[in-house]
Every structure is written in C-alpha cells, then in structure tokens.
Amino acid sequence: MNKLIVLLTAFVLLLSSCSQNQPILKIGLVADPQYEDKNTAGIRHYRESLWKLNEAIDTFNQYNVDFVQNLGDIINSGWESFDSIMPVYDNLKPRIGNYHLLGNHDFAIDSIDMPGLLKVLSMPDHYYSYVVKNWRFIVLNSMDYSYLANPLYNHNIDLIDSYYEKTKGKINHYNWNGAIGEKQQDWLKSELKTAEQMDQKVIVFAHMPLRPDVEETLWNEKEIIEIIESSPNIVAFINGHRHKGDYAFENGIHYISMFGMVDTEVSSYGILEVYPESLVLTGYGNQESLKMVTSDK
Fold this sequence. Notes:
The chain is an alpha/beta fold and about 300 residues long. Helices cover about 25% and strands about 20% of the residues. The chain is built from 8 helices and 12 strands. It has helices spanning about 1-20, 50-60, 80-85, 115-120, 150-155, 155-165, 180-195, 220-230, and strands at about 25-30, 65-70, 95-100, 130, 135-140, 200-205, 235-240, 245-250, 255, 270-275, 280-285, 290-295. The strands form 2 sheets. The protein has a 6-stranded mixed sheet, covered by helices on one side.
C-alpha cells in the first residue's frame, strides 16, 4: 500500500510539473500588414501582405493559439483593400478568437466609409476589453484625437491642435500620430481597477507605442504612461506602428513594438506564450524573439 501511495504521489507531481511547463495562453500577433493592391515602394511590399498574412494564419492554426490580435493598419489605403485582406482571417480555426484595433492607415479611406470601420473589423467599439482565462486584454484607440480620424469622431479641432502642438520640438511631432483623450483615459482607469479587484493580470494592446521615445510615439504618451505604470496588474504593453520594431522594460512593464509585416520580403508576426511568471514571444520572419520575466509584477 505504501508503495502504491508513493507511486501515485510521484505521478501527481509529474503531472503538476508538466502542466507548469504549458503556457496559460498562446496569442497570435500581427502588426501593420498595410495591404493594398499596388507595387512595392522602397521596403514596403503592399501586395505581398496577402500571402504573408495567410502564412501567419497557417502558423497560428498549427500551434493552436487561443486568439489572434491585430495591432492596426490592416490596410494601407482605400476601402476596397478590406475586401481582399479581411477574408484571410476566415481561414482561422473556428475556436480561435480574432480581434482588431484601429491604426492610422485604417483611416486612409473616404470619410463617408469611416462609420463602417467597426463592422468591417468586427470590433465591438473603438476601444474595448476582453477576458480570456482570467487575463484581461485592453484594446486602446490611439487614433482617438487625431487629424486622420476626426472626420469620424468630430472632436474640437482646437483640442487636437493642442495635443499636436505640445509635441513641437519632440521626436514624435508628426501629424499622422494621435492622442488618447480624457474619456478613454477614464475608461482605462476603470478597466484597470476592475482587473485589480478581480485579481486579473493585464496586457494592453494599442497601435502607437509609449516607450521608448521614438517618432511613432503617441502624442500624449506621458499621460498614458502614468496610468499604465501605476497599475500593479499590467505586465505588457504591445503595439504596432513602429515598423522596425522595438523593446523597452520600465517599472515592471514590458513594452513591445512588433515589426511591421509590410516592411519585409519574407514576413513578420509572432506567437506570445503567457506563463505564470514569464512571457515568451516567438518571432517569425523579421520579428525578434523575446523571453521576459513577469514575476515581479
């Protein structure tokens, strides 16, 4: 009997050890396909994003990711570009979730078509959250206050000018960037409070980066960094927009800029594995692979 108990105990410990080696979640990440049916210009291979995204979807299916998050700029310009690239996502296995967010190039369409963006991207709102296996994922709208998106949002142009002018003399003083307004900031704070109450770890997705300080950084990045880094539950902030990719680690948060799919002859995408005390990003094509410890958060 004692021998049987010892064997059963060893078996339970083995199962426990194996389960700890399995990720809690596997997430497919895609940034900046910028598809358009036009010829390559410089390093941007617009038309080739169709086969690149198909390759990424095949990989996500092969590794049975839990869901796929697009980080913006699914198209380069023109509403007709959605008609070609969105059906690629239909090739995902039915059990795999599929989420999108808004980038600056997604607004490079006729203003009359802008009200249809949420529908074509199957988004519940311009910013939103979802929970998978008790992890909260917050999807921000970097185009909230911006010149490109204002035909849709119709914010006071003086406020947009104010956000933009505050970047004068800074590296991110470009009119194709944007800012996150007070209403969305209040919503973000509420989401983080809920996550803390429910003991949920958080990953934030956005189009524009917060760190490091680069050309593509959100206009009011300091305001958002203050909110992000005051939360004990956030472990990562993941974005697109910076096609060359980037990484920073500040105040317990991993800031990851994914490499732009359009800027390569091969491809670029990743699978993020979430573990209790770490994140592992496996890059494909030009995307860098990263191993990140999260246990201090």
